[in-house]
């Protein structure tokens, strides 16, 4: 290359770089502004509080789980590999691993804790779904469209809470009594808790909350200042599962 | 043309074989067969006009699926001004109770297999 050509190219390159600061004038931002969703005050933001000082007092109570299983036609498969779960119990030390320490209260360590889909503010399952079969509704509920699910199970891998189940086999033979109010699922789709979206639409509380006679589950709209959940969250210390992941669960636990 | 006789008989045999199914249906009267679904209700109109439901019910159901699941809207305002709850089990199958006689008769004839009932329930399944 001649010295003259080199200089020409160098000047062209430099002038090209000098345009860069003004490039944004011609393009649109790629990512949506998350803050818009957060300040959207007109819509409800559903959340649930599990009061662990009440829940589990009555030993072995599964009223909430039974109610959910019944109305959502959830198959009872005993093989843990094929199990379908929407809401279930796990010991405290496995739900809140980061809360464990050597000399902690043994009762608390082994205490059964109710777990379900957290309906995250930033749901990882939604970002990985290739067909948009799962998405976050405007009111924050992470919904499933079983019509669209192709059974790739990316969402199961992405969910840090194990809240999703896959239908490895036809669930029909495993449902004792079919409830006409909710469809069954078919082999090859993923399913999970839907915060009883179909009941909220009828102004009803989620089935688990309604089934809990002790009042251990509280459900409501955190955007409403006078709602019970909002009052509890603003006055008491609550913990969430794996908060360090930034998924921002909307299922809160108070001890 | 060589082997004229053989070729023409061949063609005739081929044509007879080709038209046997049509002839069979014509002779046995199956060509004029029309499926007779049992409507299960005496209502004159359901959601939309009779003709529309006959030809486009699948489009309506598809739209219902979309509005209920994706948009969370569970009411459908029909052209006649009435509002219907979007619910295949609760609204459609409440009147058209017999899925085998209502849905399947035409679908079998037309050779279509909608996947609705893989998940959605109708009375017979729920009562089993």
Keywords:
heterodimer, A: 255 residues, alpha+beta, Alpha-Beta Plaits, three-stranded mixed sheet, 10 helices, 9 strands, B: 128 residues, mainly alpha, two-stranded antiparallel sheet, 5 helices, 5% strand
Largest sheet of chain A: 3 strands, mixed
Any idea of the CATH topology of chain A?
Alpha-Beta Plaits
Quaternary state reads heterodimer
Number of strands of chain B: 2
N→C terminal distance of chain B: 70 Å
The main sheet of chain A orders its strands as 8-1-9
- Kindly report the average pLDDT value of chain A: 90
Question: Uncertain spans of chain B, ≥5 residues at pLDDT below 50?
Answer: none
Q: Strand sequence of the main sheet of chain B, in spatial order?
A: 1-2
Radius of gyration of chain B: 23 Å
Describe, in plain words, how this protein is organized in 3D.
The complex is a heterodimer of chains A (255) and B (128). Helices cover 26% and strands 14% of the residues of chain A. Chain A has 255 residues and is an alpha+beta fold. In chain A, strand 4 (134-136) and strand 5 form a beta hairpin. Chain A starts with a helix and ends with a strand. Chain B has 128 residues and is mostly helical. In chain B, strands 1-2 form a two-stranded antiparallel sheet. Chain B has two domains: 1-33; 50-127, no CATH class.
What would a concise description of this structure say?
The complex is a heterodimer of chains A (255) and B (128). Chain A has helices spanning 3-19, 34-38, 63-71, 92-95, 106-110, 124-128, 154-158, 197-200, 207-211, 228-235; strands at 46-51, 87-91, 112-116, 134-136, 142-144, 165-166, 190-191, 217-221, 251-254.
